[in-house]
Amino acid sequence: MACKGRILQLQHYSVNDGEGIRTIVFFAGCPLHCRWCANPEGYTPENQILFIASRCVQCGRCTAVCPQHIGWDLNDAAARHACIGCGACVDVCLEKARTHTVAEYTVKEIVEKLASQQLFFRNSGGGVTYSGGECTSQSQFLSELVDAVYDMGLDQAIETSGFFDLSLLRPVLDKIDLLFIDIKLMDREKHKQYTGVDNSLILRNIAEIGTHRTGVVIRVPTIIGINGDDENIRKTARFVKTHLQDPKMELLPYHSYGADKYMQLGMTYDESSFGTPSEEDMARLNAIIESEGVTVVSYR
């Protein structure tokens, strides 16, 4: 049986996360649970049901087909806990108040969709970017997909947390043209506090990757009150300068675009804890990076 990937979304016509026009393949599942994540549906590889309460007319169709006998209000804590994500309710919801988060694809199915975009890729110098969630958490499927896209001759990029077994992923990374790796925080304990894991493996992987290749960009999701301070950015830049052959960084200012998803998944989200950096903040932090001998780049 062909290996199947659990995918959140295939986003065509993107001009972010690599050169040219791209298709972004968002993988489900992630070993990190960053408190500010814009894609919280990607925490798990399992399907969940997004519930948009404002669309619901309480018709009862969902309750009639639910094997768990859950009521219409999926924002109710007990209902959400009981939901098994089977999706029976999605199929009968006429108001589109419920949607799946995950779909299964074979490599062949994704390749067919990418083939329809090749004109855009070729004319713009674009290609495919693997993101998530965390694409490396489905290492077998990622490996098979990367091999297939490599045979198509397309540019490939990966956007990753860096939290993976490098010995397992090295053959995959060798076929990747551009590698984006996040460093959320340099402080080990704060990293664990805000993401659920410490950063030892991430930093070790970056240092090892940096000795073998170029084409690496370190990204920092920049959040005032968490990691958007001068000290953290300077420490990050110094680490990047030390360990990458061609040191590059990109600061990604925090946004709250994913806040609605938390409500639709019955999750809490404390937006007050996270601050968006101003243009002045970004200019100052980018100047610090450059002062440490690291090139500031932008793929946004």
Automatic annotation (TrEMBL):
Domain 4Fe-4S ferredoxin-type positions: 47-77, 83-103
Domain Radical SAM core stretches: 16-300
Keyword Chaperone attached: no
Cofactor field: [4Fe-4S] cluster
PROSITE patterns: 4FE4S_FER_1 (PS00198), 4FE4S_FER_2 (PS51379), RADICAL_ACTIVATING (PS01087), RADICAL_SAM (PS51918)
InterPro entries: 4Fe4S_Fe-S-bd, 4Fe4S_Fe_S_CS, Aldolase_TIM, BssD/PflA/YjjW, Organic_radical-activating, Organic_radical_activase, Radical_activat_CS, rSAM
Designated name of the protein: Glycyl-radical enzyme activating protein
Originating species: Megasphaera cerevisiae DSM 20462
